[in-house]
């Protein structure tokens, strides 16, 4: 639920008028328009205000890899950055993965985002094998594809996506694969059952939901989800 003073953001803190507008959006059309204006300055603003969401997601993903999670397949590990924006998560994940396992792991990273302007910036980072424009609520650009690991940062929050987007997103996860994604605490609190129902309804299980640094003064839950390997894709 939005606070009475939206000028302070959903969680009582914002970094700009565009940040505030993104939280107050009521449709994908509004989101596209906001991010079209924000794309050129987005990275600078995020980094100036100590964005941590993509680092939190990467940290949890690397812990999974250290356990052997999402590596039980032939060929390159297929990773989807769902709601990739300007590619900060994909860039950081690839850099940390190279440091974690230099030269020993082949990765195919794909990105999906609603904003073509944000995707253009992501493409300039050189870490994505493919980038596609689309909505997480249907995932049509990746229909029928199976990923070993799905990552997402800054997508599940007011004005963006709720628990209803988990079904389409997790449908792209292969049996035995994992998803790691942020859910803003203001959205997660009081709606845990909706998220859990969406996860189990997708044939997956929740492994953990840890509160971790997100952006500026804001924290978020980082959920780790697994699709059991016994399921048929």
Features:
alpha/beta; 36% helix; disordered N terminus
Topology pattern, helix = H, strand = E = HHHEHEHEEHEHHEE
The biggest sheet, with number of strands, parallel, antiparallel or mixed sense and barrel status, is: 7 strands, mixed
Overall spatial form? globular
Q: Could you say how many structural domains there are in total? A: 1
In terms of DSSP E residues, the strand content is: 25-35%
Q: Tell me the name of the CATH class.
A: Alpha Beta
CATH architecture: 3-Layer(aba) Sandwich
Class by helix and strand content?
alpha/beta
**What's the β-strand tally?**
7
Radius of gyration, whole Å: 17 Å
Low-pLDDT segments, ≥5 res = 1-6
- Average pLDDT, to the nearest integer? 90
**In the CATH hierarchy, what is the superfamily?**
Vaccinia Virus protein VP39
**What's the arrangement of strands in the largest beta sheet?**
3-2-1-4-5-7-6
Number of helices: 8
N- to C-terminal distance: 36 Å
CATH topology name: Rossmann fold
Helix content: 25-40%
